[in-house]
Design a protein that fits this description.
Blueprint (H helix, E strand, L loop, with lengths): L3 E6 L4 H12 L3 E8 L5 H6 L4 E4 L3 H8 L3 E4 L7 H9 L3 E4 L2 H6 L1 H11 L3 E3 L2 H10 L7 E8 L17 H4 L9 H9 L1 H14 L6 E5 L5 E7 L4 E5 L5 H9 L30 H12 L3 H17 L5 H14 L8 H19 L3
Parallel strand pairs: 1-2, 1-4, 2-3, 4-5, 5-6, 7-8
Antiparallel strand pairs: 7-9, 9-10
The structure holds NADP nicotinamide-adenine-dinucleotide phosphate.
NADP nicotinamide-adenine-dinucleotide phosphate (NAP) binds next to helix 1, strand 2, helix 5 and helix 9.
Length: 360
């Protein structure tokens, strides 16, 4: 039996904790490295006999030391970029939850992946679904990808009804339990915007071939339209342990504790168009993606700044999108030749967003 060595970055987060559950259940997986941002890891490392654990700092130092077969990048935000590029460059399997790194560093990541020649398996449930629906299919047979969005806690509200919503309301997601940043992103639809750009880089399709549809129950994780008129869907209860396990055990598909869908009990398969006026961050992401260069990096950076400010009560809900829009208007968006350029583009967009937060 070959035991896969798993380096788990973002080990103390929502994805990280669920990943530990998956590793614990599977004798073919073992943790070789753990990283968090600031939460101490001593107890976790001792409980799982993990030699390499690191709090904060550059994850690539940990990865160098622990020699993983697979890296699960579940860090939140741009902080995950270095680990994504490190892993792709070396041809080590990357199980990617940290969508922000692919959004910010799409071009560099694709180039690193081509040089490295390893596997990049998405952990985002929508992209895991698409990955599975696309497996073994010639690209020219694919008409479009359809990303599903729950619509978040404010689905159905008009823009005018969103100005006074609080962080606590935004954090009450109807179908998924996740970290705070992604939960706010789900409420603004920035999460779907990030996923749109992520899908573009993962699957190499132009933006006009990637649709977004709201599906409130989150049972259909995403769909692929084929040119002969067939529409393939991936269904299941919203449970991140399934895509985490898929990525970590690929291609074996180990069993998981996920509850089976009871089809006979009745399934609600309702879909509707996203409201781009109430939730402008989805349209802004599409525009940033189409503009290319470092515009997606700037979109992500400004969004991170704005979400943090919203969670601290410094700005209102609608200010999140306004901050991102303003930042995108002032950055130059020129392409990044390397990681240093990208880090500078990220910083410039953060500065632009911070300036927008200061009351005039
Ligand atoms: N949660 C979900 O269901 C879900 C679904 C799809 C995709 N994702 C994606 O997965 C990623 C993680 O999401 P999450 O919900 O698990 O977030 P989370 O619960 O907030 O956890 C974030 C993790 O990242 C660590 N971290 C934060 N800043 C860091 C830094 N500078 N360097 C290294 N580690 C750092 C945190 O450590 P500390 O504990 O020390 O802060 C924590 O372990 C995000 O990119 C998210 O979009 C999540």
């Amino acid at each position: 039996m070959h035991v896969k060595r798993v380096a788990l970055l973002g080990a103390t987060g929502s994805i990280g904790r669920q990943a530990i559950e998956i590793v614990e259940r599977n004798p073919e997986l073992e943790l070789c490295g753990l990283q968090s941002g600031s939460t101490p890891l001593d107890a976790l490392a001792a409980a799982y006999g993990v030699e390499h654990a690191q709090v904060g700092g550059d994850a690539t130092a940990l990865l160098d030391a622990c020699e993983p077969d697979v890296v699960l990048n579940a860090i939140v935000g741009f902080a995950g970029v270095r680990a994504t590029l490190w892993t792709l460059e070396r041809g080590i399997t990357l199980a990617l939850a940290n969508k922000e790194s692919l959004v910010a560093a799409g071009e560099l990541a694709v180039a690193a992946g081509e040089r490295g020649g390893g596997l990049l398996i998405p952990v985002d449930s929508e992209h895991s679904a698409l990955y599975q629906c696309l497996e073994g299919r010639a690209r020219e047979t694919v008409e479009s990808l359809v990303l599903t969005a729950s619509g978040g806690p404010f689905r159905g509200r008009a823009r005018s009804e969103l100005s006074g919503v609080t962080a606590a309301e935004a954090l009450a997601h109807p179908t998924w339990t996740m970290g705070r940043k992604i939960t706010v992103d789900s409420a603004t639809l920035a999460n779907k915007g990030l996923e749109l750009i992520e899908a573009h880089w993962l699957f190499g399709l132009p933006y006009e071939q990637i649709e977004v549809v709201v599906h409130p129950t989150s049972v259909v994780h995403s769909l692929v339209r084929l040119r002969d008129g067939a529409l393939l869907a991936h269904l299941g209860h919203p449970d991140m342990r399934v895509p985490i396990s898929f990525a970590l055990t690929y291609p074996e598909r180990a069993p998981t504790p996920a509850r089976a869908l009871d089809l006979a009990a009745g399934l609600e398969l309702r879909f509707e168009a996203p409201d781009l006026e109430a939730f402008p961050l989805l349209g802004l992401a599409r525009r940033a993606g189409e503009q290319g260069g470092t515009f997606p990096c700037a979109y992500n950076a400004a969004n991170e700044v704005a979400v943090a400010a919203f969670l601290e009560g410094r700005i209102g809900f609608l200010d999140i999108a306004a901050t991102v829009e303003d930042a995108l208007d002032v950055v130059d968006g020129s392409p990044a030749r390397d990681l240093d350029d990208l880090v500078e583009a990220d910083r410039a967009a953060r500065r632009a967003a911070e300036r927008r937060l200061v009351p005039a």
